[in-house]
TrEMBL record:
Species this protein is from: Monodelphis domestica
Keywords assigned by UniProt, alphabetized: Mitochondrion, Protein biosynthesis, Transit peptide
Family under the similarity heading: Belongs to the RRF family.
Recorded GO CC terms: mitochondrion
Source species, domain of life: Eukaryota
GO molecular function annotation: ribosomal large subunit binding
PANTHER family for this protein: RIBOSOME RECYCLING FACTOR, RIBOSOME-RECYCLING FACTOR, MITOCHONDRIAL
Protein name, per record: Ribosome-recycling factor, mitochondrial
Stated role: Responsible for the disassembly of ribosomes from messenger RNA at the termination of mitochondrial protein biosynthesis. Acts in collaboration with GFM2. Promotes mitochondrial ribosome recycling by dissolution of intersubunit contacts.
Keyword Protein biosynthesis among UniProt keywords: yes
GO biological process: translation
Location, primary (coarse class): mitochondrion
Residue ranges annotated for the Ribosome recycling factor domain, each copy included: 99-261
InterPro entries listed in its UniProt record: Ribosome_recyc_fac, Ribosome_recyc_fac_dom, RRF_sf
Gene name, Swiss-Prot/TrEMBL: MRRF
Length: 262
């Protein structure tokens, strides 16, 4: 028994050393190759997530399927010479804001004069908001008037824009005045608005993909001068930002759908 304990004391230091190697952070090697040490990252907050290698059983692996992957949180100031993550974040957020603005202005159960304001009218002199070339007013709860006296030559273009606005409107012409009957709120109209909301969300996601692609292409230009592990880490951060933005869009779509269907 005494001999066994003595042997364990001899083996113990080597055992702990080998264990510390196995649990060394996976990102440590990549950070060294870029001139940024792991301690630097911890002190500056460049990466708040430490990924550690664990040995798991098949049962544990099966149990972990479907769980979210470890998130990264890069300090933007440490990689600003490679790419400005703050600018990417602003561009992605602007896509969400544009979608929310579209929902508020164009997708409402009750059509109001304000919902026609930003309908884009294409003329020979360019594109203009409807409220810039016509005076919009509410004649009655069932009728909106658009007075085109100041720009009568744009009347036909304004009628076309109103019809193609996706708001289920059928304008009528009375001289230089456009009469826009407000449609009744039917189940079909509600479902049509929900369909438009989904289409607008998909367009916003396409715009988001363009922002993500542009950021990735910019990052690729630095591959010759930046360590591969650092590039992959930034790519993961950008992908994570895009996924978060898509989740936010889906959240706004779900709320709008609930509002429209009642």
């Amino acid at each position: 028994m005494a001999l066994g304990l003595r042997c364990f004391r001899w083996v113990q230091p080597g055992f702990y050393n080998s264990l510390s190697v196995l649990t060394r952070p996976v990102l440590e090697v990549g950070m060294r190759s870029t001139g940024i040490t792991w301690n630097d990252c911890q002190q500056s907050g460049a990466c708040s997530t430490v990924m550690i290698r664990h040995f798991a059983t098949k049962k544990a692996k099966a149990k972990g399927k479907g769980h979210p992957q470890t998130r990264v949180n890069i300090n933007a100031s440490l990689v600003e010479d490679i790419i400005c993550l703050e600018e990417v974040d602003v561009e992605m957020k602007s896509v969400v804001e544009a979608l929310k603005d579209n929902f508020n202005k164009n997708l409402n159960i009750r059509t109001s004069p304000g919902s026609l304001d930003h309908i884009t009218v294409t003329t020979g002199d360019g594109k203009f908001a409807l409220n810039h070339i016509g005076q919009i007013s509410l004649k009655s709860p069932q009728l909106i008037l658009v007075n085109m006296t100041n720009f009568p030559e744009c009347t036909a273009a304004a009628i076309k824009a109103i019809r193609e606005s996706g708001m289920n409107l059928n304008p009528e012409v009375d001289g230089t005045v456009i009469r826009v009957p407000i449609p009744k709120v039917t189940r079909e109209h509600r479902e049509m608005l929900v369909k438009l909301a989904k289409q607008n969300t998909n367009k916003a996601k396409d715009n988001l993909r363009k922002v993500r692609t542009n950021a990735m292409n910019k990052l690729k230009k630095s591959k010759d001068s930046v360590a591969e592990d650092t590039i992959k880490l930034i790519e993961k951060q950008i992908g994570q930002m895009a996924d978060d933005t898509v989740a936010e869009m889906d959240k706004h779509l779900a709320l709008k759908t609930k509002e429209l269907l009642g």
